[in-house]
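Homework help board

Subject: predicted structure for assignment chain

Our instructor gave us this sequence and asked us to write out the predicted structure in token form, then describe one feature. I got the tokens but I'm not sure how to describe them. Can anyone check?
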Amino acid sequence: MKTFCILSAFVLIGTCSTTKYTTKIQNLKDSITLADSILVVNYANTITKEELTTHLYAFSSDDFEGREVGEKGQKIAAEFLKSYYQNEAIESPYGGSNYFQTIPEGFFSNGIKASENVLAFIEGSEKPEEIIVISAHLDHLGVNDDGQINNGADDDGSGTVAIMEIAQAFNNAKKDGYGPKRSILFLHLTAEEIGKKGSEFYVNHPAFPLKNTITDLNIDMIGRVDKNHTNNKNYIYLIGSDRLSKELHYISEKVNKNYTNIYLDYRYNVEGERNNYYSRSDHYNFAKYGIPVIFYFNGEHNDYHKPTDTPDKIDYKLLEKRTKLIFATAWQIANQEHRLTTDENNKFLN
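My token output:
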């Protein structure tokens, strides 16, 4: 009888603990109030497949010679992005016409030449010191020995042009008097293909103190469909969303449910996942500093890291929808009342 009572007590304790945690999570979910729903829809609708198509055909054209780090084509890509932001009247965080964070040759190895990250910036209207980073890498693999160009339309032309459209949408809102409360840094990173060196350099030499960076939304390949989803292409893989901030995770889910209704696939977010995607793109260098991240990814396909990754194979309507999700998520983080918190600082979880 005594044994039964002891076992019953353990069961009750376990049940109470589970319920308590479940209640905490529900309270966290309930605390998330979406900001400016009508404005989000209005400005998300300025992100169009037509503009994404135009940008991506240019960015992944043969003229850019595969955008190999430090080489002519990558320099052309950096100038292309700089010109875009100047034409859109979106400023540099460095001021004036300097949109480049130069990475010296000595930072690299194997004879790789100096390169540059490209940065553009919209200052927040109420809490400008709090920074949201939206990132994608601008480089790719260059030209093969047989002269074939690796255009990198999906990897990562798709992420690059998504940022361009997101930046334009936020800037349109700002022009109309609805600028973000927090600042947004649009960060085009070089040297991802050789080991995330552009983002490594950035976190070592940030434009703003890392303690002020509240999240990195990293976009790396969002224009295609992988073999796991050939029967339902309305998906995107999210990696890292709950690793450091469950608030970020549930914001992402609530935003998606209300605006885009994409299937959020978390299979590659499992710790110990054999592909190690969590550590393979630029967000990881932010996560290492305790900054919450989301990595948006469509998965690998038959053209991954091949010259056949060309712009004609992109699903532009799907690219538009995924870009709108990222825009709406960034809008929420930029405009909600409180700063996004990590789990260790979240009052609902402690």
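Reply (TA_rk): Your tokens look well-formed. For the description, you could write something like this. The CA atoms of residues 150 and 306 lie 6 Å apart. That's the kind of observation they're looking for.
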